[in-house]
UniProtKB/TrEMBL annotation:
It is an enzyme of class 7 (translocase). InterPro entries: NADH_UbQ_OxRdtase_su1/FPO, NADH_UbQ_OxRdtase_su1_CS. This is NADH-ubiquinone oxidoreductase chain 1. It is found in: Mitochondrion inner membrane.
Length: 317
């Protein structure tokens, strides 16, 4: 039953990815004063189905260069890691229930870089290689800030368990106390998922399609599904950490949807940054701020743990 529950969850996630793509195309269309897809089915609701049939029925061409085994295997690895992160959905009876959820997420998000790195290298294309170098440097840089923010909560809870966010935000949301951390984590998640204005690994205007230039058919579909699955999970995690964390209510999923809508809104509003500006923002702005928050949380927890001992000493005196 646990395995069946997990399979149903995976199916619903893939369906949500399909309709999230439709939502993105419609929102971007209205932002650019056009309608977006509206002909296939009622109001275009069957457009994701037709796109999936088209993608999976296209011919996958055989490349005579590069490492063929890694070339075909890497899209499956990226989608598998993205799906693996969803076992962290914090139910009381989960497919995998362990108290090390944040640690598991840190490990999985570190593996996402390898999918882009090896798929780009195996393509043996100059455009893919440039996109690979950009993506690896960007991912490693922004992972530092993202993990430092998560370490604040690990010190605060003295635990890696994601259910702590549910019990700790019954009366007060963490966004009210740590709004700068929320904004920095949102920007780091944009960079981790290669979304605009941090979409340097793709860079259509200068790199054709970046790291996935040589991919087509079902291989491209798996890369596409992996990216959007990561986006939905990052939105879920951000809502869980800062926006209440009450994952038993419908209101929580509306918050997840609003964070997802923010991804689309930012894509339609901002142009791609310069690469040196991207690195400057990470190392000169985000990292010092997150380090300051890290030391504040560390000192706060030391004060909380030592306060009872100091109080006992004062009472003895």
């Amino acid at each position: 039953m646990f395995f069946l529950n997990f399979l149903i969850l995976m199916g619903l996630i893939l369906i949500s990815v399909a309709f999230f793509v439709l939502l993105e195309r419609k929102v971007l269309g209205y932002m650019q004063i056009r309608k977006g897809p509206f002909k296939v089915g009622f109001l275009g609701l069957l457009q994701p189905l037709s796109d999936a049939i088209k993608l999976f029925s296209k011919e996958s061409y055989y490349i005579y260069f590069g490492n063929l085994l890694i070339y075909y295997f890497m899209p499956f690895l990226g989608l598998g890691v993205s799906m693996n992160m969803w076992v962290l959905y914090p139910n009381l009876f989960n497919f995998i229930s362990f108290p090390l959820g944040l640690l598991f997420f840190i490990v999985c998000s570190g593996f996402l870089v390898y999918g882009i790195l090896l798929s780009s290298w195996a393509s043996n294309s100059s455009y893919s290689l440039i996109g690979c170098l950009r993506s690896v440097a960007q991912g490693i840089s922004y992972e530092v800030c993202m993990f430092l923010i998560m370490f604040n909560f690990i010190f605060f809870f003295s635990s890696f368990n994601l259910t702590k966010f549910f019990f700790s935000q019954q009366m007060n949301w963490f966004i009210l106390m740590g709004y700068p951390m929320f904004l920095i984590l949102y920007a780091c998640m944009l960079a981790e998922t290669n979304r605009s204005p941090f979409d340097f690994s793709e860079g259509e205007s200068e790199l054709v399609s970046g790291f996935n230039t040589e991919y087509s058919s079902f291989n491209f579909s798996f890369i596409f599904l992996s990216e959007y699955t990561n986006m939905i999970f990052m939105s879920f995690l951000l809502s869980l950490m800062f926006l209440g964390g009450d994952y038993f209510s419908l209101f929580f999923f509306l918050k997840v949807m609003s964070v997802n809508f923010g991804f689309i809104w930012i894509r339609g509003s901002f142009p791609r940054l310069r690469y040196d500006k991207l690195m400057m923002i990470c190392w000169k702005i985000y990292l010092p701020v997150t380090l300051n928050f890290f030391f504040i949380f560390l000192n706060l927890m030391i004060f909380i743990y030592l306060a009872p001992f100091n109080l006992v000493k004062l009472m003895k005196n």
